[in-house]
Amino acid sequence: MSVVAMLEGSEAADRASTLTALGIARRLQVPVSGVCALPDPTSTLIVMSTPEATGLAANATRDITAMQEEVIARAKKTFETATGGESLPCDFSHIVDVAERAGANAATLADAVVFPHSVQKAADPLSLSFEYVLMEARLPVVMAGSEPLTDGPVVVAWDGSNGAARAVRFHLPLVKAFGEVIIAQNESDLGKDQPRDASSPAALETWLDSHNVKHKRMPIEGQVASGLLSLAKGSNASIIVAGAYGHSRIGERLFGGTTQRLLDADEAPALALAR
């Protein structure tokens, strides 16, 4: 197993992803992999039959290949600089594939797959990959925070929903690695759905006890996202674990309100999400 940092060729974004992945990997004592996924240049071109068009296509392929080589070189340099001198095994790889599929393949078996904080913006090169892995492949992801990873506790956003439960189960290795959980719940949320025993914080506490994870409850009030971010800042939390709500379709991101506010926050710890 390993922690994977998804890289895009932007120094700031790739450094943040790599350092977050490295911080998680140190806790888990597993290798770190930097992955830069770019499609085959020839697959992005339309096949043309005339001799003139064939020549243009060949030139375009060379241009795309040159641009990709620059992206790969920047991603590799940033990854190797950030991991230089690290005792854990660290390796960089360029995968010839679309980032959506590469991200989903990585998330299938990795301990964690880390995307940069900038994927909150639709124009980011890895934005579609992040959305696809989380919303379509329904695999867990980590979004790097706006600041370096801390050694603080993990805040679990708990409303007893299936999404919240999936997030905690999927990210159990991270939860155990950081050692302490703050269970955050807005009690007014409990009345929105039909009551069930599993929705109470006591149910999560029992489950965490079975995995030898320390925990405590801390209530939040008002808007859930604002309450979670305030609690995370006040407790110097390393990660917020939360269920991701909503759905996606081509060209439009339709995350639920709380998820979107967490993603859009300019100042936030790392987010460990699952749908």
UniProtKB/TrEMBL annotation:
Q: UspA domain location, by residue? A: 153-264
- Which InterPro entries does the entry mention? Universal_stress_UspA, UspA
Q: Which domain of life is it from?
A: Bacteria
> Which family does the UniProt entry place this protein in?
Belongs to the universal stress protein A family.
Instruction: Name the chain's protein.
Output: Universal stress protein family protein
State the species of origin: Hyphomonas adhaerens MHS-3
